[in-house]
Amino acid sequence: MTIPFVYRLFFLYIEPVSALAGAYYAAFQPENYLRDLSLPGGNLQPPSLTTQNNMVLLQLANLYLLFALNEHLVLSSTNSLKTWRRLLFGLLVADFGHLISMAPLGADVFWRVGDWNAMVWGSVGFVYAGASMRMSFLAGLGLGNVETTGTRRPKIE
Fold first, then answer.
1. Which of 61, 128, 150, 151 could be 26's S-S partner, Cβ–Cβ 3.0 to 4.6 Å?
2. pTM above 0.85, yes or no
3. Could you report the per-residue pLDDT of 48-98, keeping only the tens digit for each?
4. Using a CB cutoff of 8 Å and minimum separation of 24, what contacts does 46-55 make?
Protein backbone atom coordinates (compact mmCIF):
# COMPACT_ATOMS: atom_id res chain seq x y z
CA MET A 1 0.00 0.00 0.00
CA THR A 2 1.16 3.55 -0.70
CA ILE A 3 0.28 6.77 1.04
CA PRO A 4 -3.04 7.95 -0.47
CA PHE A 5 -2.84 10.50 -3.29
CA VAL A 6 -4.65 13.31 -1.45
CA TYR A 7 -2.11 13.20 1.41
CA ARG A 8 0.85 12.99 -0.97
CA LEU A 9 -0.46 15.91 -3.02
CA PHE A 10 -1.03 18.12 0.00
CA PHE A 11 2.02 17.25 2.10
CA LEU A 12 4.58 16.85 -0.69
CA TYR A 13 3.55 19.72 -2.96
CA ILE A 14 0.77 22.09 -1.90
CA GLU A 15 1.96 22.80 1.63
CA PRO A 16 5.70 23.05 0.85
CA VAL A 17 5.00 25.48 -2.01
CA SER A 18 2.83 27.53 0.34
CA ALA A 19 5.64 27.59 2.91
CA LEU A 20 8.07 28.75 0.21
CA ALA A 21 5.66 31.58 -0.64
CA GLY A 22 5.64 32.58 3.03
CA ALA A 23 9.44 32.45 3.10
CA TYR A 24 9.65 34.68 0.05
CA TYR A 25 7.16 37.17 1.46
CA ALA A 26 8.90 37.39 4.86
CA ALA A 27 12.37 37.72 3.33
CA PHE A 28 11.76 39.91 0.28
CA GLN A 29 8.55 41.80 1.10
CA PRO A 30 9.00 42.42 4.85
CA GLU A 31 7.04 45.69 4.97
CA ASN A 32 4.08 44.06 3.23
CA TYR A 33 4.40 40.98 5.43
CA LEU A 34 4.11 43.10 8.59
CA ARG A 35 1.37 45.34 7.20
CA ASP A 36 -0.81 42.46 6.04
CA LEU A 37 -0.55 40.52 9.29
CA SER A 38 -3.69 42.13 10.71
CA LEU A 39 -7.44 42.42 10.34
CA PRO A 40 -9.15 45.54 8.97
CA GLY A 41 -10.05 48.05 11.65
CA GLY A 42 -7.49 46.70 14.08
CA ASN A 43 -5.52 49.05 16.26
CA LEU A 44 -2.23 47.40 15.44
CA GLN A 45 0.22 49.41 13.42
CA PRO A 46 3.14 47.56 11.89
CA PRO A 47 6.40 48.67 13.39
CA SER A 48 8.97 50.41 11.31
CA LEU A 49 11.31 47.93 9.75
CA THR A 50 14.26 48.12 12.10
CA THR A 51 17.35 45.98 11.73
CA GLN A 52 15.98 43.69 14.45
CA ASN A 53 12.57 43.39 12.73
CA ASN A 54 14.31 42.53 9.50
CA MET A 55 16.47 39.91 11.24
CA VAL A 56 13.40 38.30 12.82
CA LEU A 57 11.63 38.15 9.46
CA LEU A 58 14.71 36.64 7.80
CA GLN A 59 14.83 34.03 10.57
CA LEU A 60 11.13 33.34 10.02
CA ALA A 61 11.74 32.99 6.28
CA ASN A 62 14.53 30.53 7.05
CA LEU A 63 12.17 28.47 9.23
CA TYR A 64 9.52 28.45 6.48
CA LEU A 65 12.21 27.20 4.10
CA LEU A 66 13.21 24.49 6.59
CA PHE A 67 9.55 23.53 7.00
CA ALA A 68 9.09 23.21 3.23
CA LEU A 69 12.29 21.22 2.68
CA ASN A 70 11.76 18.89 5.65
CA GLU A 71 8.19 18.12 4.73
CA HIS A 72 8.86 17.51 1.05
CA LEU A 73 12.25 15.79 1.23
CA VAL A 74 11.58 13.54 4.23
CA LEU A 75 8.06 12.49 3.25
CA SER A 76 8.92 12.00 -0.43
CA SER A 77 11.80 9.72 0.53
CA THR A 78 9.71 7.10 2.33
CA ASN A 79 6.41 5.28 2.51
CA SER A 80 7.06 4.41 6.14
CA LEU A 81 3.86 5.12 8.03
CA LYS A 82 5.92 5.55 11.21
CA THR A 83 8.02 8.30 9.62
CA TRP A 84 4.99 10.04 8.13
CA ARG A 85 3.16 9.96 11.46
CA ARG A 86 6.10 11.28 13.44
CA LEU A 87 6.83 14.16 11.10
CA LEU A 88 3.17 15.09 10.73
CA PHE A 89 2.67 14.98 14.50
CA GLY A 90 5.54 17.45 14.92
CA LEU A 91 4.02 19.71 12.27
CA LEU A 92 0.63 19.48 14.00
CA VAL A 93 2.21 20.76 17.21
CA ALA A 94 3.71 23.60 15.13
CA ASP A 95 0.24 24.33 13.66
CA PHE A 96 -1.15 24.96 17.13
CA GLY A 97 1.87 27.10 17.98
CA HIS A 98 1.35 29.11 14.79
CA LEU A 99 -2.31 29.69 15.64
CA ILE A 100 -1.37 30.79 19.16
CA SER A 101 1.04 33.30 17.61
CA MET A 102 -1.99 34.97 15.96
CA ALA A 103 -3.77 35.50 19.31
CA PRO A 104 -2.46 39.06 19.84
CA LEU A 105 -4.82 40.13 17.04
CA GLY A 106 -7.72 39.03 19.27
CA ALA A 107 -10.13 36.11 19.13
CA ASP A 108 -11.84 37.60 16.06
CA VAL A 109 -8.91 36.60 13.90
CA PHE A 110 -9.91 32.94 14.21
CA TRP A 111 -13.44 33.27 12.87
CA ARG A 112 -13.90 36.56 10.94
CA VAL A 113 -13.25 34.80 7.64
CA GLY A 114 -14.81 37.58 5.59
CA ASP A 115 -12.22 40.02 6.91
CA TRP A 116 -9.18 37.90 6.19
CA ASN A 117 -6.62 39.20 3.71
CA ALA A 118 -4.20 36.86 1.93
CA MET A 119 -1.76 36.87 4.84
CA VAL A 120 -4.42 35.98 7.42
CA TRP A 121 -5.79 33.31 5.08
CA GLY A 122 -2.30 31.81 5.07
CA SER A 123 -1.67 32.27 8.78
CA VAL A 124 -5.05 31.01 9.97
CA GLY A 125 -7.14 29.47 7.18
CA PHE A 126 -4.38 27.47 5.56
CA VAL A 127 -3.10 26.39 8.98
CA TYR A 128 -6.63 25.11 9.72
CA ALA A 129 -6.45 23.10 6.49
CA GLY A 130 -3.00 21.70 7.24
CA ALA A 131 -3.91 20.79 10.81
CA SER A 132 -7.10 19.11 9.57
CA MET A 133 -5.15 17.09 7.03
CA ARG A 134 -2.61 16.07 9.68
CA MET A 135 -5.31 15.07 12.18
CA SER A 136 -7.06 13.06 9.46
CA PHE A 137 -3.84 11.26 8.59
CA LEU A 138 -2.97 10.61 12.23
CA ALA A 139 -6.50 9.27 12.82
CA GLY A 140 -5.97 6.86 9.91
CA LEU A 141 -8.65 8.32 7.63
CA GLY A 142 -8.22 7.03 4.12
CA LEU A 143 -5.41 4.67 5.06
CA GLY A 144 -7.53 1.57 4.53
CA ASN A 145 -6.71 -1.51 6.56
CA VAL A 146 -3.38 -0.23 7.80
CA GLU A 147 -3.05 -0.84 11.53
CA THR A 148 -3.53 2.47 13.35
CA THR A 149 -3.14 1.39 16.98
CA GLY A 150 -0.56 -0.47 18.99
CA THR A 151 3.17 -0.07 19.21
CA ARG A 152 4.12 -1.75 15.95
CA ARG A 153 2.95 -0.32 12.70
CA PRO A 154 3.64 -1.94 9.35
CA LYS A 155 5.78 -0.20 6.79
CA ILE A 156 3.68 0.81 3.82
CA GLU A 157 5.36 -0.25 0.61
1. 61
2. yes
3. 889 999 999 999 999 999 999 999 999 999 999 999 999 999 999 999 999
4. 54/30
